[in-house]
Amino acid sequence: MKYRKLGNSDLSVSEISLGSWLTYGVGVERESAAACVNRAFDLGINFIDTANVYGRGAAESFLGEVLAKRPRDSYVLATKIYFPMSDGDKGLSRGQINKQIDASLKRLRVDHVDLYQCHRYDTETPLQETMQALSEVVRAGKARYIGFSEWSAPQIDAAFAVAGSERFVSSQPQYSLLWRKPEEKVIPLSAKKGVSQIVWSPLAQGVLSGKYLPGAKIPADSRAGSESMGKFIGSWLQPRVLDAVQRLKPLAAKANCTLSQFALAWVLREPNVASAIVGASKPEQLEENARASGLAIDPALFAQAEAIVAGAERGV
Predict the structure, then answer these.
(1) Is residue 218, in this structure, part of any structural domain at all?
(2) What CATH number does residue 135 fall under?
(3) DSSP for residue 217
(4) How far apart are CA 312 and CA 147, in angstroms?
(5) Whether the model pTM is above 0.85
(6) Can you tell me the distance from the alpha carbon of 183 to that of 89, in angstroms, rounded to the nearest whole number?
(7) Which residue among 3, 24, 54, 121 is the active-site one?
(8) What CA–CA distance (Å, rounded) separates 83 from 91?
(9) pLDDT tens string 99-158
């Protein structure tokens, strides 16, 4: 496993990280989930990402339980705030930030998180209030650093203009061969600001593994076949997308790796990406994905892959 520095921080994170969206505490049985977390450590994965809203606290509670016996300095832990935890608990106000960080720490059974992220931008709260509250959390020792997810370039710029506040060190965008929007503005701006990308859905929820075949029945044991985990994948299961993905398989074969590894290595080719977050319901999935770290692949193969999927991206 290779490691990269996370923005202007002193955190060193594994190139492949373990996420918990739709999986732990929700869609994956506890025994299998715990096996995945334990295997992650065996593979050198030190970065674990979650959010308070995942299972309305269930993912954090699960991680708090399985990480309890591990030394706190053996992993980098990130969580998030923004989405509703109840009808009245949502957003990035000072009150919510103070309330939700304490609740997250209690569920996670730690006295601090390494990275506290704004899950989205809050248009209903003044940005200065949000930045000041996040800064207070850091200065109180409850979080070491702060980050954001899916903020626009103007929103990022505005945050850095708030005087006297802590600075963001991470951005968590959706980014993959099938979704390259962050390249337009967010990645260039982040590189200038000392912010690294922590990529979510680098495999387009598993579509870039190549396991979903055009016109074929969805595998029952896949994310798309799960009632609890498959509700967001439908937009990727379009014929033009699945056809394009199948055409990527010969390129992965030329690179002597699986298609999943090829797609993850493509994401990691970007210097501003610190880590690619993967979800796993089985330890063997994590083992395959971890092997993408450090892969040296001919850039010409990546260029061919980009040409193949051009126009097949979601929404095109």
Answers:
(1) no
(2) 3.20.20.100
(3) P
(4) 30
(5) yes
(6) 33
(7) 54
(8) 6
(9) 999 999 999 999 999 999 999 999 999 999 999 999 999 999 999 999 999 999 999 999
